[in-house]
Design goal:
Helix content is about 35%, strand content about 15%. With about 140 residues, it is of the alpha+beta class.
Length: about 140
């Protein structure tokens, strides 16, 4: 197992583990920011992750797309929408590669996203969270 050195960021490059100084990478290439959404774009496409304020990582390849949250949309709402059949079908329909499914930036720019006003986005996310909390309580009581 490779040694992880403090103040460095580990990541995979062509299946080899490498350590690079995080601040150097951040200054040179930029890194995802809080509330940006990362989407797996090769192979298991459509898996999402919302970047947290405390996250310190860097990625360097097209296997991940970063949706920059520059328009103050609710990242949790976008994550929910990306998991719907509506968006997943767009991803899979337009991602056929010769070997593995792939989402390109060009293809992603063609997706149709429903964008209600910000207050409605938050209401939807809150309702979904309430339902999942209720389901958790029901499961715990069984």
């Amino acid at each position: 197992m490779p040694k992880v050195v403090h103040s460095t960021l580990p990541f995979f490059v062509h299946c080899k583990f490498a350590n690079y100084n995080y601040l150097d990478l951040k200054d040179k290439y930029g890194v995802p920011k809080e509330n940006d959404i990362l989407i797996s774009a090769v192979g298991s496409i459509g898996k999402t992750y919302i970047v947290k304020k405390t996250d310190k990582f860097y990625y360097k390849d097209a296997s991940v797309l970063c949706l920059s949250n520059s328009h103050s949309v609710n990242s949790s709402f976008i994550e929910v929408i990306l998991a719907t059949d509506f968006l997943q079908s767009q991803m899979y329909k337009n991602s056929k590669g010769t070997t593995v499914d792939t989402i390109t930036i060009e293809k992603a720019n063609q997706y149709i996203f429903p964008f209600p006003p910000l207050a409605e986005q938050q209401r939807i996310v809150t309702k979904i969270e309430d339902i999942f909390n209720l389901l958790d309580k029901i499961q715990e009581s069984l």
